[in-house]
């Protein structure tokens, strides 16, 4: 029997899941992506050791290493550039991998190319509209905006922040405004002020009234990515965000105003157990952990293991439900750990406020890293290997 899987979304988690599913007997999977072929999207992202471990397992790590900027140390500095602490964002000797800064499009394209090489079908211009499970049949019906309909045995919704699959799996789940804004961009190193030459990059600058990161983002180190995350209480509609995104002057003003002066959970599996959500569709993270992609890749690898486990029973409904239940439980615990780390980073990046509180903060950060070491309490995040999950799957 062939078990047909539809993966919604060819971002990061979707193609990773398809590659992982190659090792599951009798599974045939197709990726449906709403964007046209060759569409490029995103900005520079950091891939932590736990993300790179997954990319190694699916055979794309070496390609990424030839493109991205590998680094181990991330320097925390104050607004004047003075060092406060050093954090190991990755470390080959401890985690098996350094960290990597790379443009998201390179990661997404490499994943898609690997899928095409391995003959995984990707159908573009297919925007999922509705999901329908008929009672009395194990088939799920998917309808796309272009009017096409397909019937499959299982659906993995890896369709990002504005997920249609999530609306089906967890109809009551509400989007929660996290009260943060991220501004990001990049330029060539030669365009930076010469003062940058006395500062070791990558560095995160935690100032009295703001945070900014400056990070080499390609293999040569000439492409320099920068980003700033800030508390931004004012929620806006999607149209208003698009308007702001297109208004570069307004964005410059937001940054200038700072730098010139010196969660919610939803279900991951539907009630019948034939539709799941993962990646950003299930748990978009605030941008202070640099771990959203890691989580999408981990989710995908664990889901493939859960499906492989259920494949020994030909995907019998109760075996599938049991495996997926274990997957959901495991991922929730993992997500809570990552969210704690992400929230801690948010506090670290928040402006100190007055001169006094900023000084106290800089000393507190210095003392913390002196005490916990350069691992910065991220060891459990970066050491994570999905083999941990395999051991949790009970016989079906
Ligand atoms: C500015 C920025 C910086 C970031 N920095 C980092 C970082 O440093 N480190 C890190 O780990 N993470 C970072 N992230 C987060 C990371 O990019 C995401 O967590 C990751 O891309 C999630 O992968 P995903 O596959 O779940 O979703 P996505 O990558 O968003 O992919 C979803 C895919 O689904 C498609 N889709 C959506 N709706 C439909 C539909 N109805 N039908 C068909 N297809 C659909 C979309 O077109 C897209 O291709 C950052 C994000 C942003 C925005």
TrEMBL record:
Alphabetized SUPFAM superfamilies for the sequence: FAD/NAD(P)-binding domain
Highest taxon, organism lineage: Eukaryota
Boundaries of every FAD-binding domain copy: 4-314
Keyword Oxidoreductase: yes
Transmembrane segments: none
Keywords carried by this UniProt record: FAD, Flavoprotein, Monooxygenase, Oxidoreductase
Pfam family membership, one: FAD_binding_3
UniProt-recorded Gene Ontology molecular function terms: FAD binding; monooxygenase activity
Family: Belongs to the paxM FAD-dependent monooxygenase family.
Name listed for the protein in its UniProt record: FAD-binding domain-containing protein
């Amino acid at each position: 029997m062939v078990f047909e899987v539809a993966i919604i979304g060819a971002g990061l988690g979707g193609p990773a899941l398809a590659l992982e599913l190659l090792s599951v007997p009798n599974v045939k999977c197709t990726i449906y992506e709403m964007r046209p072929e060759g569409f490029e999207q995103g900005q520079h992202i950091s891939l932590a050791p736990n993300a790179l471990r997954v990319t190694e397992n699916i055979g794309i790590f070496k390609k990424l290493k030839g493109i991205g900027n590998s680094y181990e140390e991330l320097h925390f500095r104050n607004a004047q550039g003075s060092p406060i602490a050093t954090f190991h964002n990755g470390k080959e000797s401890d985690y098996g991998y350094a960290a990597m800064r790379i443009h998201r499009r390179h990661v997404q394209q490499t994943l898609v190319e690997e899928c095409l090489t391995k003959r995984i079908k990707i159908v573009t211009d297919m925007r999922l509209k509705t999901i329908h499970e008929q009672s009395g049949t194990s088939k799920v019906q998917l309808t796309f905006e272009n009017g096409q309909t397909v019937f499959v045995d299982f659906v993995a919704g890896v369709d990002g922040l504005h997920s249609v699959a999530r609306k089906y799996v967890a109809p009551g789940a509400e989007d929660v405004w996290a009260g943060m804004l991220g501004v990001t961009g990049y330029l060539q190193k030669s365009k930076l002020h010469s003062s940058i030459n006395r500062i070791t990059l990558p560095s995160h600058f935690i100032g009295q009234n703001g945070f900014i990161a400056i990070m080499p983002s390609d293999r040569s180190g000439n492409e320099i990515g920068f980003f700033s995350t800030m508390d931004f209480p004012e929620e806006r509609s999607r149209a208003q965000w698009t308007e702001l995104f297109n208004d570069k002057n307004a964005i410059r003003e937001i940054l200038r105003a700072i730098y010139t002066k010196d969660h919610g959970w939803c279900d991951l599996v539907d009630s019948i157990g034939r539709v799941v959500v993962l990646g950003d569709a299930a748990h978009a993270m605030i941008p202070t952990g640099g771990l959203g992609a890691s989580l999408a890749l981990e989710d995908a690898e664990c889901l493939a293991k859960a499906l492989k486990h259920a494949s020994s029973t030909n995907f019998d409904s109760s075996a599938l439900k049991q495996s997926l239940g274990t997957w959901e439980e495991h991922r929730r615990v993992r997500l809570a750990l990552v969210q704690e780390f992400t929230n801690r980073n948010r506090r670290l990046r928040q402006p100190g406020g007055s001169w006094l509180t900023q000084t106290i903060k800089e000393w507190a950060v210095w003392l913390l890293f002196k005490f916990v070491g350069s691992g910065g309490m991220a060891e459990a995040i970066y050491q994570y290997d999905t083999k941990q999950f395999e051991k949790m799957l009970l016989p079906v």
